[in-house]
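Hi R.,

As promised, here are both runs. First protein below:
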Amino acid sequence: MKIGLLTHSVNPRGGVVHTVELAHALHDAGHEVTVMAPATPGQQFFRPLRCASELVPVASTPPDMVAMVDSRIAAYVNHLTPLLERAPFDVLHCHDGIGGNALATLQDRGLIDGFVRTVHHLDSFAQPQLMAWQHRSVHQARQVLCVSRVWQTTLAAQGIKALEVPNGVDAARYSPVPQATDAGLAQRLGIRTDGLVLLCVGGVEQRKNTVRVLQAFIQLRAQMPQLQLVIAGGASLLDHSAYAREFQALLQTSGAAPDVLLTGPLADDDMPGLFRLADVVAMPSLSEGFGLVVLEALCSGVPVVVSRIAPFTEYLQPQDASWADPLDAASIASAVQHALRGRDAQRMAASATRLAAQFSWQRSAHLHADIYSKMRAISLCP
């Protein structure tokens, strides 16, 4: 099949990583895959792609969210219209509201007869236009997919019958085996190797619960003065500035700033080594679509702290993680202590092996291809 996969960015956000990994697995299975994403001048995908790609030209990102989303939807429509006229796709599959609205517009214009939309998670926006776009991108899709049961249930409450198609993890890429480059990465980023490292991935965001992680870290410093908090990533199209100011205010008044490292967005090649440098990875999120970081950390031989909520409770067994109440900083601190005290390489390896077998990109690609084929068969019926 000829498949077009649309994502909202070239940066390594969870949904973008999912899109790229799915594209590679579909490509390896023999399909003709093109990954598309908006890109400002000079931008490239965070990782080299094995399949075809289309960078949709956009100007520098406007500060206003509504204007930014509107401009990216229009850029997608303008880019895809002549592309579809030259060579139509068997399937067009978007992973966010920007691509979803572009495809909905093309569908309204009769240029395509339907599209697939994966919901990783849904956001709550203050701006009515953003909420309307999000709603349209889901409700006008011919087939909606999601990556966890919790979102399948959430969508069902809105009258949408979504199919659950899980994520995957590349167990060869994320490995506990130390590499010669790990020490150089630690030195370059300023990660201490003579203490303990608590790692969070995703930047400073309310959904990631970063302020409560910092509160937990402040509590832990009294007992673990050698502990360093490393917060990696943070490339996002959403505006997290108000929450970042709250985080910075607490950081400065607490006196913890010398022990907190914010790396900002990192090169994709740095991520496997970054996990290996950590002593524990914390992901006590308030909301997640799935939580790819958890699988990547476990495959890297690092214990994880997660929220005792779905989707984590769906795919993790009790022994796979240390569990926390995401609304209680003391609970997060206790879970970090539990993870550090109970670190067991054999148990983590067993968890990683089981999860990597359950969640492979090859299996995900096979399930996607089956759904695409059924949709195609229906559209070809007289």
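And here is the second one, sequence first, then its structure tokens:
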Amino acid sequence: MHGPASPGWLLVALCAATGAYCLLRMRSGVEEQRGAAGGEALMGFGMAAMAVPAAVFSPPGWVWPAYAVVFGAAGLRALWAARSGRHHLHHAVGAAAMVYMAVVMAAAPAHGHAHGASGTPVLTGALLLYFTGYVLLTGVRLIPVVAVAGVGAGADGPAAAGWGDRPELARACRLSMAIAMLAMLLPL
């Protein structure tokens, strides 16, 4: 996105690290984890590439339509997968946001903002509201619940799951990507 270099590099690092962790989650023994992790890795790496500061690399014009096609296909795949689980709807919204940003960036003049003096477009505002709500809800879900003594899986219950199969780590990845999405949508 066309913003200052330091926050752009922080976004690149956050999204690339999240994408790398999601690639590792694809080796999980749990099929549901593997299925979601592939789409999340694509999203993380795509966001990292899109967040590279324009002062460092200004992509050629064909890149933005390519982003729109790739994330449009990812969004359709997520909608198809949503038949089996509603968490795929979030992936579809994320892919739609990436398509939207790619279209806006393709239409934006070089190193300029995507909107004029009229303010924030309605779709940008709706996506900002969605991702803000998602960040708040997911953040609340990450708050640990105090376990009652004698109740639960035992001393090695949570540790028995592989680190790639831990739902709180997957949730933390989704939270970090949603925060990054907010940061990328704000300049639009």
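A quick note on the second one: Residues 71 and 98 are 6 Å apart (CA to CA). Let me know what you think.

Best,
J.
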